[in-house]
Amino acid sequence: TMIATPELTFDHFKRIVNLTEKDNTVILQFHGVPEVTFPQVDTPVKNFISYMNYLKQENFTVISMEKFGSV
Q1: pTM of the predicted protein model
Q2: Which of 30, 35, 40, 43 has the smallest set of CB atoms within 10 Å of its CB?
Q3: 28-65 residue pLDDT tens
């Protein structure tokens, strides 16, 4: 599990994601993109796009928590 904060670097993101073994689940928690009410959990849009592009490039399947709960 990872909670995104403004301090999250792309390298740290990749390290966390790459700890996941094949066919296992990794949960990445993003509170707001952007989050103006609670800046301590803000993820800048450009960072979020980079994270999602990386997941796509590495063939991860991205789903919402809502969908995950119904699986």
Answers
A1: 0.80
A2: 40
A3: 888 888 888 888 888 999 999 999 999 999 999 888 88
> Angle at Cα 42 formed by Cα 47 and Cα 53, nearest 5°?
20
Distance CA 32, CA 15 (A): 22
The answer to whether 17 touches 26, Cβ cutoff 8 Å, is: yes
Residue with tokens 């490039």: 57
| Cα gap 66→13, rounded to integer Å | 22
Q: Which of 31, 29, 32, 2 is nearest to 15 (CA)?
A: 2
What's the CA gap between 2 and 11, in Å, rounded?
13
